[in-house]
Amino acid sequence: MKIKFVDEYLIVLAENKSIGKKKYPEEVELSFKKRIAQIKQANGTKDLREIKSLHFEKLKEKRYLGKYSIRINKAYRLIFMITKEECLEIREIEEINNHSAKYNMQTAFDLQKARLEEQQKEYTS
Fold first, then answer.
1. Which helix (H) or strand (E) holds 33?
2. What is the pLDDT of residues 35-72, one digit of tens each?
3. Full strand arrangement of the beta sheet holding 76-82
C-alpha cells in the first residue's frame, strides 16, 4: 500500500534517519517501523483488517471524523485516514491511555482541514 505522512517527525522516523530527541519510547518507535513495513506489504485495507493483532478500527468520536487506527503496541496506536486511492495518510501516534482526554490543536486542525477539503471537492465537482 501507498503511505503518505502528515507529521514530519514520523516521516523521518519511517525513513530511519537521524532524529535527535525522541518523541516516543524506543519500543514504540521500533514497533512503528514494523507497522509501516506491514502496511507497505499489504495490498489494501482488507489485508490490514485481517491481521487481528493490528486491531484495525474506524474511530467514532467527532474529533476522529474519517480516521482509523491500528495498534502499535498495548499502549500506543497509529491514527490515519484512508484516501480514495487506498493510500494511508498517517496522522499521528497516540497514547491509548490518554486518547479520551487528549484534544490537541493538531487534531482540531486536521478536522477543520478535512471539512474544507470535502467542501472544495463538492465545489469543484
1. helix 26-41
2. 999 999 999 999 999 999 999 999 998 889 999 999 99
3. 3-5, 88-95, 76-82, 67-71, 57-58
Following DSSP, what letter does each residue of 8-19 receive, concatenated?
HHHHHHHTT---
C-alpha cell at 55: 486491531
Q: Return d(Cα 125, Cα 114) in angstroms, integer.
A: 17
The β-bridge relationship of strands 57-58 and 3-5 is: unpaired
Domain boundaries defined on the chain: 3-124
Closest CA to 98 of 75, 115, 118, 65: 75
Are 39 and 1 in contact by the 8 Å Cβ rule? The answer is yes
d(CA 34, CA 125): 39
> SS3 for 68?
strand
Q: Which CATH number fits domain 3-124: 3.40.50.140, 3.40.50.300, 3.40.50.2300, 3.30.2310.20?
A: 3.30.2310.20
Confidence of residue 101 (pLDDT cuts 50, 70, 90): very low
Q: Average pLDDT, stretch 87-111?
A: 71
